[in-house]
Amino acid sequence: MAGRCVSHRTWIREWASLSLDDADTIKIGKQKALANSGHDAWGRPRPQPIEMSMKLYLNSQISRAAAYDSVDASTVHYGKLSKLLNQRIEQYQEQWMQPDDLAQVLVQAAVQFAPSTIAAVELQLCFMKTAMFGDGLSLILSHAPSLDLTAPVVLLKDICLPALIGVNPHERVMKQPVLVSVQIDRTKPHISEQSFEIEQLVVKTVEESSFETLESLSESIAACIIKFFIFAKGDAHPSGVEHPSVKVKIKKPRAIPNADAPAVEIQRRADPEDSFGRRMLGELGNKRPQIPFPLEGRLDEFLRSWKQD
Known about the structure:
Blueprint: E1 4-5, H1 8-15, E2 25-35, E3 48-58, H2 63-68, H3 78-91, H4 99-113, E4 118-127, E5 137-144, E6 149-163, E7 176-185, H5 195-207, H6 214-231, E8 245-251, E9 263-269, H7 275-284, H8 299-308
Parallel strand pairs: 1-6
Antiparallel strand pairs: 2-3, 3-4, 4-5, 5-6, 6-7, 7-8, 8-9
Helix pairs in contact: 3-4, 5-6, 6-7
């Protein structure tokens, strides 16, 4: 699927020209299938159960379909589209696919199903068994054919880990659960195939930390991903091109008895010209560590040994 790849923030700004905020929409939610795509929690390419949610923004209102009580060209037959999505998945059962490629196949199938009716497509493709400690890996792919724009986002949601976190005396002697979600925007192709490496960085950072605040822990996680996943792998983009950004959200569900969970959410850019990105590059220096997966032992000990070599 050709097109200019942009961040989701740019996607929202540019698609405003389509006046989609008031567009009529059709949604297929949480359709399940087994796809020969993705990785298991150990990073092995294996067929995976997936969950698809697709939202279609229409070029015009569905008033004509409503007036005649019929599924005409002003709307989309969601039953037929649902079957088409399953057929596309079935077509690739003999050939393992990268998750990014599967997402593009499904979005393109939707656009071709009703090209004159659909203005934009948003697909969330969740690989439910990919994460060891969280709610799976989600690829969020937004595409506007008329603008020739595509915005890819990778999300690891609610990685549940024990952490020594908090300012109160009782929180300093016993670990408590935190839920960490990591979203990477403006990704390079096929970053999802390395999602288990991102999860490993989150797990090691949380396990080895003893911060008092969620603010410090969230920035430590963002720094670790930007330094040792994005910069170390050379995934930062050239000057003049949008750089990836990392959003980290941490919830502390046991902290307040009469509330669901306090949470802190931050976003940091992997931009060498940004103050945070520049600091991350300075901490890396000229060397780029390649952290193995799985990493036996502690991350901080591995990094100390790497710096001494």
